[in-house]
Amino acid sequence: MAADETGVEANTRRIEASVVTDFSDRMSYGGYLDLDTLLAAQRPISRPEHHDELLFIIQHQTTELWLKLVLHELATACELMRADDLAPALKCIARVKHIQKTLTEQWSVLATLTPSEYAQFRGVLGNASGFQSYQYRAVEFTLGNKNAKMLQVFEADAAASAIVRRALEAPSLYDEFLRLLARAGYDIPAEVLERDVTKAWTFHEDLVPVFAAIYADPEHNWAAYETCEELVDLEDNFQLWRFRHLKTVERIIGSKTGTGGSSGAPFLKRALELTFFPELYAVRTEIPG
Question: For substrate, which residues are the binding ones (predicted)?
Answer without folding.
Answer: 56-60, 118, 122, 259
